[in-house]
Amino acid sequence: MKYLIGNLKMNLTYFESLDYIKKLQAKISQANFKNTKIGVAFSHDSISLSNQFKNRNFLFGAQNIFYEDKGAYTGEVSIRSVSELKIDFVLIGHSERRTLFNETNATINKKIQALLKANITPILCVGENRCDVQNCCSLQTIKKQIKEALLKIDNINNLIISYEPVYCIGNGEIPTIEHIQEIVDLIHDITQKNIPILYGGSVCPESIKNLLKVKNLSGFLVGGAALDINKFFNLMIELENNN
Ligand code: 13P
Q1: What is the spatial distance between Cα 57 and Cα 188, in angstroms, rounded to a whole number?
Q2: Catalytic, out of 94, 96, 103, 128
């Protein structure tokens, strides 16, 4: 199975998300995807919309959660809430959360443990920054992120990992296919499982054809291009046809 996951980040309001879902569902229903699952991660104000779309034709995701069940954690959203709303997956450890909100591998580990316990798929995002590339330590950085994020977690059957080089997000830059392949192979080696691995960072209709050359990649995590339903649909078709 292949995955095309959109990360809408903090771009749509509640009503804009409602409109987006209607258009997305209509587009997906035009096609008959057999090998590709489509998913979208909404911001917290919009995740309750999942309740209005119970028979949806796409996976409904959130962009973050807090690992405690309830309590005095002002501004956070619990796993109990996302469970009740039947959210399918949650993005964890996105580079924007790591860099802008100081999220650590230890916090990420707690979030993954809590999600797996609740039977919700975590999509763990990992990736090196430009400084790591310049210092030739991309592999070490990613290895450390994964080891620490998955510490004391034995069962990773319900986990997806997305490789997102930080320096390629939102700017049209893409690493070489060889580099992405090296990281995909590394992640499979570390996890010793055939878990789905996605690539994210400037995926768009122009770049996807080349990215599809990476072997053992299970799909893509898309930011900017997912905001445009036509571009997003174009990516779905490319991925489906490549299966
Ligand atoms: P872009 O596709 O806009 O580069 O964003 C990638 C991303 O951050 C997905 O999580």
Answers
A1: 29
A2: 94
